Amino acid sequence: MPESPTSRPRNVEAGALPNAARRAAAALALAAALLGAGGSAAQQQIGPVSGLAVPRFVSLKSDRVNLHEGPSKEHPTLWVYERAGLPVEITAEFETWRKIRDSEGTEGWVLHSLLSGRRTALVAPWKKEPALAYARDRTTPLARLSPGVVASLRLCDGSWCRVTGDGFDGFVKQESLWGVYPGEKID
Predict the structure, then answer these.
(1) Which residue from 103, 100, 126, 130 is spatially nearest to 115, judged by alpha carbons?
(2) Which candidate, 101, 67, 86, 68, places its Cα nearest to that of 14?
(3) Are 83 and 140 in contact (CB under 8 A)?
(4) Is 131 exposed, middle or buried (0-12, 13-18, 19+ CB in 10 A)?
């Protein structure tokens, strides 16, 4: 990371993110619907199996996660994720299975053991231009983060999130991240 506040922000490129632009509208529509319906992280329901909030964001634990059409291995595989740390949203629970939705709106079922409670976020997968990561003062740019970069969430205050990743540690506007709810606070 640059030492000097006058240094130019460095670029951080995303890994392959299939069809992100194709489903961006769906992700934004979901967020708008949650806000329009008065939804927030505080108004989530409790999952019948885990006792945790549903919906909630988690991340993929493994580099290979099969997304099934239904909650069993007998159901057809719809998609194979090959990116550990990718944020997904749990929308339902059934025994050892969790129904998830990714940033593109794709839904299906995965084994709960392939999910992690570690919070990550995608940098603006719906945008074409990079998002800026700022220093603690939130005015000094440190890095340009390409759309689709996976970042670890360290904290969020409802407007800004501190994110870290390979070669960056800074603050990004919460509205530029997929994997955290609007206004959600993370300590």
Answers:
(1) 100
(2) 86
(3) no
(4) buried
Q: DSSP secondary-structure letter at 36?
A: H
Q: Find tokens 């489903």 and name the residue.
A: 23
Identify residue 31 by its one-letter amino acid code: A
State how far the Cα of 14 lies from the Cα of 135, in Å rounded to an integer.
21
Residues belonging to the chain: 187
What is the pLDDT, as a whole number, of residue 43?
Answer: 59
| Of 64 and 38, more confident | 64
* Residue given tokens 């990714």 in the structure block: 102
Q: In 10 A of CB 165, how many CB atoms?
A: 19
pLDDT tens, residue by residue, 65-77: 999 999 999 999 9
Q: Phi then psi for 61, rounded to 5 degrees?
A: -85, -25
97-113 tens-digit pLDDT: 999 999 999 999 999 99
